[in-house]
Amino acid sequence: MIKNKLKVSFISILLVLLLAPILFPLESYFQAMVIYSLIGGALMLLVGVPVTFLAGVITKRTKRSIHLVNFMIHILPALLVSIKMFSPASTLLSMPYAGLPIFASTVFYVVDEVIYQKIDLKGRLVKGIFLIPIAVFLLFVGPSLFTGFSSHLTATQIKEKGSPKVSLTFLGEKIPIKSSYCWTSDGEGCVYGTEPFPLPEEKVNNVEEITMTSPATLDFSFENSEGEPTIYAYYHDGKDFKEIEEAGNKINIPNDIPEQAIKFVVKWDNNEIVKFFVGVRTGILTNGRTF
Questions:
Q1: Helix, strand, or coil here: 125?
Q2: Which of 9, 61, 119, 218 is 20–30 Å from 27 (CA)?
């Protein structure tokens, strides 16, 4: 038994160290190989090798379900290692690298079945056994691969269609609005301010202005956009900063506010964001004072 188990251990460790940097990559293959050799190698020597020897002792005395018992003996310690390293256990499936110890244990199991248990390589059982490491890999890494593919697909679609172009229809006039644009795959990372600023008497460059004598509905259109947006308007009512949120293209703005450039932020479900100002003249002067 010892000779076969040493062979199982050597081949398993070698396979894990060769496959892990490909299936669970870091910045580079070499970097992953070094890290996995130091940390993973130590864990496989301390846990993987003793476990595969223990499995040999137990299965030798087992009369039924030998392959299932062998599988459970290899998997359970690896699962405990993952829980210890990547707690809490409830988040394991959302952490791709938490599957690495379990993947390594399945490699030990498959090699052990071939070399020590001497399964029939022509039988039906062997096909399922070789699929186990693949299944573990897909279980842990599959969701992130799908997310990455979806993000890449979305990024390609957004690049092809271009960023949304903003225009405002007010009192029957269509006014092009200069805006800035941001998109990230997860909706995070787009930093923007939400503060309006008082309008001086003279016109501000790159800020389109409208004159409001009564509360009005601003009707925006967004060329090259997909789906219904959510509009956020940030303004100052003379006493405090306010926020309005509306789904769709229209948003209601009061006119009893100081003259200011209202900050607008528009978001879509695909994580696209456009930001812009609209100057509002109400007759309530601020003379450029800060709020």
A1: helix
A2: 9
Measured distance CA(188)–CA(183) in Å, rounded: 9
Per-residue pLDDT of the chain (291 residues; tens, 9 = 90+): 788 888 899 999 999 999 988 888 887 888 888 988 998 899 999 999 999 999 888 988 888 888 889 989 998 998 888 888 887 766 666 677 888 898 999 999 999 988 988 887 777 666 778 888 888 888 877 665 555 555 554 556 566 667 899 999 999 999 999 999 988 776 677 888 999 999 988 889 989 999 999 999 999 999 988 889 999 999 999 899 999 999 999 999 999 999 999 999 999 988 889 999 999 999 998 766 777
What lies within 8 Å, CB to CB, of 279 at 6+ separation is: 199, 203, 204, 207, 208, 209, 210, 259, 260, 261, 262
Report the distance separating Cα 252 and Cα 246, nearest Å: 9
Q: How many CB atoms lie within 10 A of CB 133?
A: 22
Alpha-carbon distance of 105 to 228, in angstroms, equals 48
**Taking the complete model, does pTM exceed 0.90, yes or no?**
no
> In whole angstroms, what is the distance from residue 101 CA to residue 107 CA?
10
